[in-house]
Amino acid sequence: MSVTGARESAGARGAPGDGPWWWARRRSAVLDVVLAALSTVECVVEGVPFAHGAGLPEWVGMALGLVVGPVLLVRRRWPVVVVLASIAVMPAEMGALLGVVGLYTLAASDVPRRITALLAGMTVVGTLVTTYVSMQQDVAREGTFHPPVWFVPVMAVAVGLVMTAPPVLWGLYIGARRRLVESLRERADGLERELSLLADRAEERAEWARNEERTRIAREMHDVVAHRVSLMVVHAAALQAVALKDPEKASKNAALVGDMGRQALTELREMLGVLRTAEGAAPARGSAGSDEPERLAAVASEAARRAEPEAGAGSAEGDGDGPSLAELADLVGQSRAAGMAVVLSVEGAGGATAGRSYAAGVEQTVYRVVQEALTNVHKHAPGARARVRLAHRGDEVAVQVENGPSERGAADAGLPSGGNGLVGMRERVTALGGVFVSGPTEAGGFRVSAVVPVGAAAVGG
């Protein structure tokens, strides 16, 4: 049975596997060749007295040395074979280097420990017996030297332990150290792969966050610009119609246009200010000397933080600085001032339109739905009557904006439309886990309905 556990892998010590046959490196092959040459010389030299003592020709002992000594060449591939060969030639009192190196290689390899212990024990016993017999013969040949009875056994045990214990212990230490290094290297490689995956995930999350932020900004810009500018266009048209007939009404409409423009500019400045703050914070983190993975992790963390409100409480706009339900009356009043016949009704106790009763994201979502619905009425159904209904239902708030048919039939105000209004409303509502429904009515108008759950986000009512 062959044992291959002692072979050194090419990557075990970080060296390229450029060695021949079973050697991982060329210098390992050179070392084994040198050891095998030394072992061969030793066995050949020791084979001569063995042949004399056994009454054999010298060439027999030398031939035995030439056969046994080169076995060290396979010590990394088959360490058990090397140890067995050293045990086999112990009676011939040859192969000391073969035994020492073989035991070291066996102990340092991945051969099961029970096999290592068995072969080490056999080596100890073989060395002890061989040494004992040899010393007894030497004492008998001397004749004049009579050592104590305990001398020969003690010396045999000492020689047996000296020839086996040091290489075995040193091999066990080297093997344990090698396995520890390999384990640490594997852990380091695993950590490196994990960091690479984390960096990739952070980059993906950062890209996702950027896309989400672009969508949110586009939706917010649409709400601000579309509503304010639509009202400004309506007021400008009315101003043009009454400029000569009713200067007082024309002046009032001009003031309203100015107010709308200022409000739009204010909201745009607020959004641009947030963008500038976010863009200025990123280089500050980079200038502190953080590396790329840390920067990506920071971006992902910030993206997750900014995305959480949109997933759980509306959108990143819900920080308390946006519109609230308390401003619905003003919103409706602006449309009414633009000539729309619009009625606001509030049902349910708790919240009404005075004071913030829900989380900022919930109130802003409801406000934006009403704002966009009224904007669409201005665009596509000028002159139509509209009704805004707000209902507080304990764990949810519902809003419905319905308009009748336009007094001008199918004609609209001629305002441009990107087709994103209904999409934006649906995204806002569904992001909170709500339900959004829109469509034409049987009377020829249009209805927009949204139900937004408040859950634990409710503060009052």
3D structure, described in words:
It is a single chain. This protein is of the alpha+beta class. The chain has two domains: 26-146, no CATH class; 193-457, 2-Layer Sandwich (Heat Shock Protein 90). Helix content is 63%, strand content 8%. Strands 1-2-3-5-4 form a five-stranded mixed beta sheet, covered by helices on one side. A hairpin with a 5-residue loop joins strand 4 and strand 5. Helix 1 runs antiparallel to helix 2. The radius of gyration is 46 Å and the shape is rod-shaped. The two termini are 83 Å apart.
Extended strand count:
5
**Strands ordered across the widest β-sheet:** 1-2-3-5-4
Q: Gap between N and C termini, in Å?
A: 83 Å
Structural class: alpha+beta
Strand % is 5-15%
Series of secondary-structure elements, N-terminal to C-terminal: HHHHHHHHHEHEEHEE
CATH topology heading of the largest domain: Heat Shock Protein 90
As for the number of domains, it is: 2
Shape: rod-shaped
Oligomer, anyone? single chain
Show unreliable segments. 1-16, 283-301, 303-319, 456-461
How many helix segments?
A: 11
Short account of what is shown:
By secondary structure, this protein is of the alpha+beta class. The chain has eleven helices and five strands, in the order αααααααααβαββαββ.
Characteristic terms for this protein:
461 residues, alpha+beta, 2 domains, 5-stranded mixed beta sheet, 11 helices, 5 strands, 63% helix, disordered N terminus, disordered C terminus, phosphoprotein
